[in-house]
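Can't attach files on this board, so I'm pasting raw text. These are the components:
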Amino acid sequence: MKTLTPKQQALFTLLNEIGIISQLSSARFERMLPHGLTVAQFSVLNHLVRLEGDWSPARLAAAFQVTKGTMTSTLQRLVAKGLISLEPDPSDGRAKHVKLTEAGGVAREAALAAAGPSLGELNAALSPAEIDALIPSLQKLRIWLDKHR
Amino acid sequence: MKTLTPKQQALFTLLNEIGIISQLSSARFERMLPHGLTVAQFSVLNHLVRLEGDWSPARLAAAFQVTKGTMTSTLQRLVAKGLISLEPDPSDGRAKHVKLTEAGGVAREAALAAAGPSLGELNAALSPAEIDALIPSLQKLRIWLDKHR
DNA sequence: ACTATATAGTTCGGTATCAAACCAAAGGAG
DNA sequence: CTCCTTTGGTTTGATACCGAACTATATAGT
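---
Top answer:
Structure tokens for the assembled complex are below.
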């Protein structure tokens, strides 16, 4: 039976764990969110609140590392819920501006309030020190993957 | 503007990085796989080769931490490709046995050969020591999430 | 034995995601 | 100015995934 080298095996295990954690944590998070918000939708709302500036669908897609098509879909759902609006960019006929609506701001606050406690529970699983230790390595990995796709 | 506590913020960042890595690495991996195999499908084949014993859909779902419905769907696609077969369990009228076919074994070998090198490239992003350091913490997190869902 | 509960598996409706193909507008090279 | 390439956005088709509802079988409690 063919197998992977130990190095490859370790990487495979790592990515496997990461995939499962991603799944479980998204599902967990989503169950907390009000208004039928999904993680992807909440992330966009949160992003718009936290980071000032003009955000186009393309910039958002790049920020979240998803394809333009995926972002189109997520934005359409947010528009349908009245949480954002898409406006034409006067200086570029192709582009659009993504704008948070009043309702979008409110929904984001509510989601934050609902999800924060659930996030806190995770401290039982991992100490703050462990969390801080994990982040830089994962960022390195994420950046490498982004650069080499 | 409402924000998260620093602790919550760190956890949020962590889960965010994990989500993006999961996405990017699955997409990368999948592009390498032959026969239109997906990561989910390959994982099942690989699992059946590496771990002896009888595997039912329910056991596989638990092992991969997905719902039974998700596993049903993945297994149906593998059956359609002729890579596994589902057989009734003589001792339990509800259960089934998942069996790898010849073609399944071959496909798994081919996938391994195709994907191994791509996995190796990741060593450029993270040293073996970093990888080994990451795994235990992530496992702790995964196990906690599994237990508390 | 009968009933209630738990477990195995499927199906359904919805969202996210990708890749690929497409259109329209912008920018650069001649 | 015209052609070519790049960029912004949408659409389509496929897969994975969840949660919830459902059927059928098994097991436990009384």
